[in-house]
Amino acid sequence: MKIAVVILNWNGVKLLEQFLPSVIQFSPEATIYVADNASTDESVAFVKNNFPTVKVVQNKINQGFAGGYNDALQHIDAEIYALVNSDIEVTENWLKPILETFDSNPKTAIIQPKILDFKQKDYFEYAGAAGGFIDKFGYPFCRGRIFDTLEKDNRQYNDTTEIFWASGACFFIRSEVYKELKGFDEDFFAHQEEIDLCWRAINRGYSIKYNSESIVYHVGGATLQKANSQKTFLNFRNSLLMLTKNLPQKNLIQVLFIRLMLDGIAGVKFVFSSQFSHCWAIIRAHFSFYSLFFKNYKKREKNQMKIYFKTKSIVYGYYVKSGTVFGNYI
Asked: How far is CA 64 from the centre of its chain?
């Protein structure tokens, strides 16, 4: 299969200097691209001067993760897109098991590798870990990560299995499926657009898989750190947009109402912990969601999954029942 490894970059020259060499070293099967999202640093010149085998696609403006990839991939010809964050370290033979899974499973549209923490390499990393799911109220969680609790990698998820969503940190997708789904939803800008894309793929009869034989290490938060209130804004707003687009009609009003209440509780919690900018971010997220509601409601497709969730509530399970590992939810 013809595979393109595409690294989206925005003002990340230091990350490219640190992590691009491992991608080049361990990806002989692939053509490697840096998709530059209108950087103002020396990223483009650095890549061209130091890595002449790497192709550069330059986006005219920064449209975030969603728009950035949508723009860049129009110029890339491949059967498989490997969308890789600039703060990912890959390992030897990371592409082979992914390509084998695609080859032997025609209905598999999207695959995620095992994602471990670059700083603590025997622990799973927040963004994806060993494959993602959502609960009844749309909260994402992973095998290996429930909210902020990360599991140690004791080979407990060494398998190839079906999941609900794959992490955008290292995201493999058939190009024909990406085009069929019209790529990421640019209303999201960044955060949770990959969950939305996976949900839409499943609604069309495709499957999503995790393959532990492919291993990468992720720094996490290198572009937008957790302490940044803009990240809170995007996560809260985009989660509501995703639910509006993809929930079965019978669940939509109930789940959105409960989520709005739970978001209010989260806002109060931020106030009591003196994180006022994050409380304000939730308020902004809600007003932005209201302004985009009807536009995104119209994006709903005819076929919606009847059973979409792995468990009823990870909020209840985590904060009330102290369920900190994935095994508590199966």
From this structure: 13
- As a whole number of Å, the end-to-end CA separation of the chain is 35
Range of the domain at 315: 229-329
Torsion-angle region of residue 110: left (phi > 0), alpha (psi -120 to 50) or beta? beta
Q: Is residue 224 part of a domain?
A: no
- Number of Cβ within a 10 Å radius of residue 186: 17
pLDDT tens readout for residues 102-159? 999 999 999 999 999 999 999 999 999 999 999 999 999 999 999 999 999 999 999 9
Last residue of a domain, one of 164, 185, 218: 218
Three-state SS sequence of 15-80: HHHHHHHHHHHCCCCEEEEEEECCCCCCHHHHHHHHCCCCEEEECCCCCHHHHHHHHHHCCCCCCE
> What residue has token string 């209201």?
290
Q: How far apart are CA 139 and CA 238, in angstroms?
A: 11
Transcribe 160-203 into DSSP letters: EEEESB--TTEEEEEHHHHHHTTSS-TTS-SSSHHHHHHHHHHH
Q: Say whether both 55 and 138 belong to one domain.
A: yes
pTM: 0.95
The amino acid at 37: N
- Per-residue model confidence as pLDDT tens digits over 167-189: 999 999 999 999 999 999 999 99
Statement to judge: residues 267 and 136 lie in one domain: no
Alpha-carbon gap, residue 241 to 243, rounded angstroms? 5
Is 60 part of any domain?
Answer: yes
Please indicate, yes or no, if residue 141 is contained in any of the structural domains. Answer: yes
d(CA 92, CA 244): 40
269 DSSP assignment: H
Q: Which residue has the tokens 């483009």?
A: 44
Alpha-carbon span 326 to 330, nearest angstrom = 7
